[in-house]
Amino acid sequence: MDQINFDQVPVSSKESGRRHELLKETGKAMLISYDEEIIGVELPASVELTIAETEPGVQGDRVSGARKSATLETGFVVQVPLFVGPGEAIKVDTRTGEYMNPSVS
What we know:
4% of the residues lie in helices and 37% in strands. It has one helix spanning 13-16; strands spanning 30-34, 37-42, 46-54, 67-72, 77-81, 89-93, 98-100. The strands form two sheets. Strands 5-4-3-6-7 form a five-stranded antiparallel sheet, with no helix packed on it. Strands 1-2 form a two-stranded antiparallel sheet.
């Protein structure tokens, strides 16, 4: 939606690729246009999303750097550390699509 006149602006997956899976309905993105045609989408550097589904970590599995798949609220799948569980909010780097360590801001 245009933030000035509130017009709906359709964006195809051609312009956004899979990056649209990193935005919630209320998320903001900058649309890059040329001659009134959208040619690209610029997202914020990171977004905070909630984990909808992931397997529980195995007790005693403490391998450094071990990861598991997690499906986020938007449907995007990301690799997360074993200690992260469903319902937790995590940060995802929109440039790489990877989990961001909470201590990295």
